[in-house]
Amino acid sequence: MPEFRPNNGPEGFEGQVIHSMDYSKMDSKSATNFVKGKQVAVVGFQRSGMDIAMECSTVNGVERPCTVLIRTPQWNLPADFSPWGLNLGYLYLSRFSELMVHKPGEGLLLSLLATTLSPLYHFHFTEVGLIKICRKLYIKHKNRLAKYGMVPEHSFLNECSVAVVPEGFYDRVEEGSIKLIKKAECLGFSKEGIVLEGKAETIKSELVILATGFKGIDKLKHIFESTKYQEFIAGSDDSATVPLYRECIHPGIPQVAIIGFSESTATLYTSEIRCRWLAELLDGKFKVPSIKVMEKEIAEWDKYKKRYSYNKYYRNSCIAALHVWRNDQLCKDMGWNPKRKKGFWAEWFQPYGPMDY
Known about the structure:
The protein is an alpha/beta fold and 357 residues long. Helices cover 39% and strands 10% of the residues. The chain folds into two domains: 10-78 and 143-210, FAD/NAD(P)-binding domain (3-Layer(bba) Sandwich), CATH 3.50.50; 216-356, FAD/NAD(P)-binding domain. Strand 5 (186-189) and strand 6 (193-196) form a beta hairpin.
């Protein structure tokens, strides 16, 4: 829940304010009855925010449009992100694509390959290459971003965990059952609704749903009652990534395993394979290395993340560009063959996904 200045919080609002987590706990019928006939405002424009706005617009239509308040426009992908019939997994989720990226613990040969292929990387991944084409000619067109003033100011590559726009979302915006308000910095509440910074008009609402995410670092700290251990696991640098071996285990507290503190282009998939890895560890199939070895591995991955990844608001780790390389390591830990495809060409050029594991 966001923090508000004194006398600016929800306590002065005559309507109701909940977090998206509370809404998600409702069954379908309860959720429908909860929003039906109400003027709903959703704060946030990632996965939960867009899904809730779609559900509210389905229930209330254009008579009571759902207002979505957006602080920072994002490069959210269309539901059918296959421009001109091209499956982008072949470009960005294959072993070959990862040869262009310097990897933690890669060795001399792979390092030389990454350096040699760096011109191809710049065409393949960066703003001057295919990403730019997809962004300019497809995402902007498909999501009608320019029409609604929703073109982000930051690079497409500055995203780690990218949300997928629900099918038909911008059709709802077009018909008027969803209303977008961009660069909306919420100052607080009045009796009638939400007060925005620099705007005199109140966003009149009867129900406000805060799709404002979760403070994951607070959840980690409050595993422990001891202030010493809270500071130990969270660290002293508020901008640094939380150091987790295999994005799962803190080397100083190896008795505690943390699932879900790693961002990627497919976060559920990333968490599920770590659940399997953890189950194999608890079953005694392998052991974690010494603290020194774990800290060295974490430092190598931290170097990669600073070079290729971007996480402005979170302290989660981001492995978006190296899914296959990271999963290879998990497979080797568990005693599995990391090569999951059949045949040379499939192994190197077909995209890797959840079903391969």
